[in-house]
Amino acid sequence: MFKTLAVRTRIIPHLTSSAKPLLATSKENRGLSTVVDIPDIVKLSFHTENADFQLNAHIGNSLLQEAKRSNVNIAGICEGKKVCNSCHVHLDPRSYSLVGEPSEEEVDIFDLATGISDVYVPGRSRLCCQIKVTDALQGADIFIPHSSQG
Ligand code: FES
Question: Which structural domain range is residue 57 located in?
């Protein structure tokens, strides 16, 4: 669940006695070693009207890749080529603020999609094929409208 990253650090004394020492990192350093745990999986949830899917999502993959890997009921027909709009989801407000607004190209896809206007929600709607899983998405709630279910 965690990658272990060993970071070598060296304390560099400052010229004045009142200043705090600076830390530096280097492959050649022979100073102190610090172990930092970096999570490579986050827990998040997809929801439909009838089902909830909890999954351990790999950081760096798209939300769509992780949903499909976990057999979540989402269409994602074009598999991330940004032509189908069948991976449209509603993010919880916190997650939406973390991933940000859709690109112009993504907005164009929403505009062109037929039958989507009734489920498009400003400030919540995104194409999940365009969202990378990051550690900040830990605990995200992602709602799949009926039109995007597989
Ligand atoms: S899977 Fe087609 S636009 Fe995202």
Answer: 41-148
